[in-house]
């Protein structure tokens, strides 16, 4: 994978992870208002966005496994950090929404 493709992949991970995190945070806010059906849809949307980001991450891992080693740069590290934080946010949002649902 050339450097421009690696940069594009990193940006795609950041984009989808950011969308997923935003959806998860919005889901918490609507659950706080008692709008659980909307919250569930937002959590589903968050999951879909994170799946898209994960596909790009998986492609990088597969290339690495095939021996196509890449130079690690700060943008790629940032994209991975962004994805992991977004996944954690989504998981916690699910739990927070369940707590609101129990009220």
From TrEMBL:
Binds 1 Mg(2+) ion per trimer. The active site is at 78 (tele-phosphohistidine intermediate). The modification Phosphohistidine is found at residue 78. InterPro entries: PTS_IIA_lac/cel, PTS_IIA_lac/cel_sf. It comes from Oceanobacillus sojae. The keyword Transit peptide does not apply. This is Lichenan-specific phosphotransferase enzyme IIA component. One of its GO terms (molecular function) is transferase activity. Keywords: Magnesium, Metal-binding, Phosphotransferase system, Sugar transport, Transferase, Transport. Its cofactor is Mg(2+). SUPFAM superfamilies: Enzyme IIa from lactose specific PTS, IIa-lac. The gene is licA_3. Mg(2+) binds at residue 81. Pfam families: PTS_IIA. The keyword Electron transport does not apply. GO terms for biological process: phosphoenolpyruvate-dependent sugar phosphotransferase system.
């Amino acid at each position: 994978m050339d450097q421009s493709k690696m940069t594009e992949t990193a940006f795609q991970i950041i984009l989808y992870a950011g969308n997923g995190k935003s959806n998860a945070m919005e889901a918490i806010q609507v659950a706080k208002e008692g709008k659980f059906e909307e919250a569930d849809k937002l959590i589903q949307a968050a999951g879909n966005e994170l799946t898209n980001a994960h596909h790009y991450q998986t492609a990088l891992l597969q290339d690495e496994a095939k021996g196509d080693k890449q130079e690690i740069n700060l943008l790629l590290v940032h994209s991975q950090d962004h994805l992991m934080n977004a996944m954690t946010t989504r998981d916690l949002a699910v739990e927070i929404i369940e707590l609101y649902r129990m009220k």
